[in-house]
Amino acid sequence: MDFETDFLIIGSGIAGLSLGLKLAEIGRVTVITKKSEADTATNLAQGGIACALGEDDDPNLHEFDTLKAGDGLCHEDIVRQIVRQAPDRIRELKKWGVNFTRDPSNPERLDLGQEGGHSRRRIVHVEDFTGRAIQKALMARAAGKKNIEVLEDYIAVDLLTECKIGYDNDATERQKHSNGPKSVERCLGAYVLEVATGTVHTFLSHVTVLATGGAGKVYLYTSNPDVATGDGIAIAYRAGARIANPEFVQFHPTCLYHPRAKNFLISEALRGEGAILLDPNGEPFMKRYDPERKDLAGRDIVARAIDMELKKSGKECVYLDISHRSPEFVKERFPNIYDVCLSLGIDITKEPIPVVPAAHYMCGGIVTDANGQSDLKGLFAIGETACTGLHGANRLASNSLLEGLVMAHQAYLFIKENLSNFTQKPAHAIPAWDTGGAVDMDEAVLISHNWDVIRRLMWNYVGIVRSTKRLGLARLRMAPILSEINQHYWDYILTRDFIELRNLAQVAELIILAAYRRKESRGGHFTIDFPEKDDWNWRRDTILKRSNNGG
């Protein structure tokens, strides 16, 4: 056995590190991350954390706004659990060293920002780089814990599982964990590639936690970091866990449009402070799509509105204008956005910002209960890779960091109370990874070509506005790509790039299948063939199981 640990956490963002800090009090924690510890979506988060702290606010209002944004598919018990824990989790972050921005008029209180979909000012933030401040504080605290080991440049290949029904005696270990077990009983850890050496190690653990973030890189344009390739969703699916609602991909309305800007988000907080969306002629347009909320409508509505405006005009971007606010306010409230835009020749205190929608957040993922536990005993999923029921069909702004914190805490409480249930020894010895007859891949174009094809296919056929015809074509065009990737899996020695491609293709297929099956428009899923909601679908999630993978 290469590695043995009490708790294996795959992912080093807010969910993984905050859980690791707590589990370190009761056992050994190993955190693996496929690049550096700071390469996370958390680190890029600008807005903040939603928390009902204002004198005119109430948790009930936060719950209502969340349910409204989720368009009928939120699980109300989960919404209540997460919203009502928010103040405790904010206090915990402060204790861990996160210095939230204070109200200039009353330094005793935290400054509360406004974002789309929220009926009150309730976004706790650190200027406009909240995620970076949280990531830095969590990493510093983890570095001081002797029971936490963080391994960079390690990427999970597949989960180690123990089955109720065995395999044929001549099945190799690689066959078992690539094709999925016949009936999985529990998770025992993971096979993990050490990027520097190319060695696949076995990591045996009592509890395995997937905190791998989202899958924005499945699309051509995204606000996500390069690591967001859907790894957790893919490996959990291959192990037999349920995946729910992958069709609900949230597209953030305002990503910076500039040839030298990559994945740079223009925070929704700008619209919360009065920024106005303008069409290419300089005219406000959101009043035509949501007369009541206008520029502060939900992300799904604003993204579709921009998409419509671009199709009507034939232009490549719209504009977001906050130049009517004082330069001093803009520079103080949004120092990061101001500096980045200025470095590209855009002075946001004097001119509008060119913006376009981009894939931003997976509202679906690995199905978990209220404690973050998946269908597989010993396997937990927290953060964006999970589907708890909080977000429903469309996430409310700044609820993502909150969910990661709360579900990490819930998982910690459950694991601590039930630790003895996870410590049974495996029934059989865990064999080493079997490379079979695989050889080195000497043509990287085999990866880069399919990577590009998948991302363009998803953007053009499974994007902001969908149709049954385009989704059907996407299914047909993904089939040979998946077949080729599967063949490469057997023929070539694994690399990080290939593992990411394999996972990206798996998640793309799940998104396409779920979108094709949902015969209605709801939240982040809009189809021109079924533009109205189906009231019979009002409380029903789309659940994909291995048994109906071909449907």
Any chance you could write out the topology, listing elements then pairs?
Blueprint: E1 3-10, H1 14-23, E2 29-33, H2 41-44, E3 49-50, H3 59-69, H4 76-95, E4 102-103, E5 106-110, E6 112-113, E7 123-124, H5 130-143, E8 148-152, E9 154-165, H6 173-179, E10 183-194, E11 199-210, H7 231-239, E12 243-244, E13 249-256, H8 269-272, E14 276-278, H9 299-313, E15 318-321, H10 327-333, H11 335-343, E16 353-362, E17 365-367, E18 379-381, E19 386-387, H12 400-417, H13 445-461, H14 468-491, H15 496-517, E20 543-544
Parallel strand pairs: 1-2, 1-11, 2-8, 11-18, 17-19
Antiparallel strand pairs: 3-7, 4-5, 6-7, 9-10, 10-11, 12-17, 12-20, 13-16, 14-15, 15-16
Helix pairs in contact: 1-5, 1-12, 3-4, 4-12, 7-15, 10-11, 13-14, 13-15, 14-15
The major β-sheet equals: 7 strands, mixed
Number of domains: 3
What is the approximate shape? Answer: globular
Average of the residue pLDDT scores = 91
Distance between the termini: 39 Å
**Rg from alpha-carbon coordinates:** 23 Å
CATH superfamily of the largest domain: FAD/NAD(P)-binding domain
Give the low-pLDDT segments. 165-171, 536-540, 545-551
SSE-based structural type: alpha/beta
CATH class of the largest domain: Alpha Beta
Helix content: 25-40%
The CATH architecture of the largest domain is 3-Layer(bba) Sandwich
